[in-house]
Amino acid sequence: MSRRVTPALLVSALFTASLVGCSADARPGETWQAPAEPQPTATPAPRAPAGAAPQRAFAVGVRQLKLNRDGRALPVTLWYPAAGNAGGGAKRSVAAASGRFPVVMFSHGLGGRPDDYATLLTRWAAAGFVVAAPTFPHTSKGGDGNVLDVLNQPADVSYALDQVLALNDRTDDQLHGRLDADRVAAAGHSAGGVTTIGLFTAARDERLDAGVVFAGTALGVGTAFAGAAAPQLFVHGELDEVVEYAAGKAVYDKVPWPKAMLSLPKGDHGRALLSDSASLRVVSDTSVEFLRWTLYGDTEAKKRIPTDATRGDIATFDDHL
What we know:
Blueprint (H helix, E strand, L loop, with lengths): L2 E3 L1 H10 L15 E3 L24 E11 L2 E11 L8 E2 L8 E7 L10 H9 L3 E5 L18 H14 L12 E11 L1 H8 L11 E5 L17 E6 L7 H10 L4 E6 L13 H19 L2 H11 L6 E5 L1
Parallel strand pairs: 3-5, 6-7, 6-8, 8-9, 9-10, 10-11
Antiparallel strand pairs: 1-2, 3-4, 4-7, 11-12
Helix pairs in contact: 6-7
């Protein structure tokens, strides 16, 4: 049976948790209905078969898909491994590199947009991943700031994933034959972290093999993690002024699968994700190795994760992978 959540109660809870600090003022809408939380049926190990991730860096291409889910405009920015020499910024609509690449769905925070995270997401693409980032209709920059719409975003991500994977079969598309539909992860920051958690709990998408949650909380989506085991990497600043570190840690503690938490003692709500810095390099390197392990099945990458996570004493690492 589904649970009904009134706008007043949810907005009050969101303000209490300071989640709305990511954006402009929120405007509650009509009564919303949150999905029921399924019971966990986890299996004991990651699903990705053993393999080896690419060790070379790729050039990066970027393009946009114009999607619409039942009247909800969902433009999706795609960063992908491209043909040509690595280095420099992402190039618009260039040919894809040869190979088949896992897909990572990325969800932005309140008042954000995918381009805000371009530095991080370009590095993921350069490491051999196709990154697809929807711009959500109400919680993005320029939207109406309706924080309640976060509850609709897991379904947006699943719909966007459908459309992205369909490109693999389109002979006229740059990504024809380049996508590995059996190796998919979800990631997100702040409200996008809520969205990502929801994809493994109340709105479980069984295609997802792993998750990366930046400064997220389970508010509105719960902690009933369900389905096949999907390793999770949590990243959270201990000085987070928007989503308290303890709130993120509480969700992490509920994950029943292989998991790790990268904690930044001097980290805030995630501004280090938006531009190049020593902190971003630690977060980027750690998350790349995590994705190499979970999506490519690269066991050597897994061995490198603790070293990358603790380089330079910028972060501490709780490792249960």
